[in-house]
Amino acid sequence: MTQKIQEPLFGVAVIAGVGLIGGSLALGLRQRGLASRVIGYDASPQALEEALALGVIDEVRATPGEWLRSADLVVLAAPVKALLPLARELAPWLSPQATVTDVGSVKMSIAAEMERLGVRQFVPGHPMAGSERGGVQNASAALLENAVWVLAPTETTPLTALSRVRTLVERLGAAPVVMPPEAHDQLVATISHLPYLASLALTHMVARDERLSLLAAGGFRDLTRVASGDPRMSRDMVVENREALREATRRFIRQLEHLADTLDHPDDLLAAATEGKRTRDSLPVVKRSLLPPKFDLVVATPDRPNQLGIITNALGQAGVNIKDIEVLSVREQGGALRLGLETLDDVTRAGELLRELGYETRGRG
Ligand SMILES: NC(=O)c1ccc[n+]([C@@H]2O[C@H](COP(=O)([O-])OP(=O)(O)OC[C@H]3O[C@@H](n4cnc5c(N)ncnc54)[C@H](O)[C@@H]3O)[C@@H](O)[C@H]2O)c1
Ligand SMILES: O=C(O)C(=O)C[C@]1(C(=O)O)C=C[C@@H](O)C=C1
């Protein structure tokens, strides 16, 4: 656990919506000693119970009230569609001194609503990190470490509030980037919301032909991971940013049409492919302790008892840390497991070890 070396930045912190992101933020606050007390507020009693049991928060509250007046920091971390009603529910109880921020994926609508509600110390925010697996059970402070975290002040956001939230983000180990809400929504339409729509388009093509899902390998899985997110939440997120997303979708369709045309002009396609590789290869690699594992090892498993036990035991004894495990297929003549490992070196070592035990393996970095 990270050592507490500085005075708490905040007194009482309230996390409204204790799911994947709210829970991860709460854990960061607690582990880094950034708040004197962390209170969880959520529409779901089960989420609150779970958050308390997991040590994510110190206390729970299920209804707004006087208790909110003592909050020094309030973070709205509910799904995009619930953010505005949540803001309306909490606003009457907030102290004018409380610093308020949110983590929602769309910024213009919540910024306008907070202005309308007269919550002056509000700083719209959005950590560019996450997962398709929601809920507090998947929360981890490490999820937000090293993440780029957009802060999207409006013209009326007080500099003192911006500075406090910027310090919070830095102390959580993330990297604040400041831009206006309009710019955020346009950029995120292309970098996050469009990939979600594209993942739906691709998965729909596969859904109509079983032979396609049989052949789907790493490339298809990598491109469509976000389609596994909560459908309602994801739908609401992209609908909230529909204007910018429509424009991004039009540009994407033009790109696809252009690429289809270059099939008759291989030199043009090579130029496009070279540019694509350069762009993809130069994306900064964000080093987090809890990331979807980068290195996969696929192990073919015969139809015999205790295969999972033998494989995980052998790797555990060799000190190979399995970050993720997935059963890819179960067949009468055997199946396959995907092991998510931390490093390429782990893939090599685990592959050698398992092949010595008679397994067939295939590594992917
Ligand atoms: N999941 C991601 O990858 C990701 C990344 C960055 C930002 N975000 C944003 O973070 C926010 C939360 O997403 P998440 O993935 O943590 O979702 P989640 O489903 O894991 O958690 C949301 C929590 O909010 C609670 N909630 C729902 N309605 C509420 C209401 N009206 N009042 C109080 N609590 C309510 C739910 O019970 C749940 O505990 C969203 O606005 C999302 O756009 C998500
Ligand atoms: O699943 C992930 O890895 C994500 O980071 C999720 C992701 C994204 O599209 O990049 C999804 C929505 C958020 O608002 C921010 C991040």
From TrEMBL:
It catalyses: prephenate + NAD(+) = 3-(4-hydroxyphenyl)pyruvate + CO2 + NADH. GO terms for biological process: tyrosine biosynthetic process. Pfam families: PDH_C (PF20463), PDH_N (PF02153). Pathway: Amino-acid biosynthesis; L-tyrosine biosynthesis; (4-hydroxyphenyl)pyruvate from prephenate (NAD(+) route): step 1/1. It is an enzyme of class 1 (oxidoreductase). The keyword Membrane applies. The keyword Kinase does not apply. Its EC number is 1.3.1.12. It comes from the Bacteria. Keywords: Amino-acid biosynthesis, Aromatic amino acid biosynthesis, Membrane, NAD, Oxidoreductase, Transmembrane, Transmembrane helix, Tyrosine biosynthesis. Residues 10-293 form the Prephenate/arogenate dehydrogenase domain. GO terms for molecular function: NAD+ binding; prephenate dehydrogenase (NAD+) activity; prephenate dehydrogenase (NADP+) activity. Residues 296-365 form the ACT domain. The chain crosses the membrane at residues 9-29. This is Prephenate dehydrogenase.
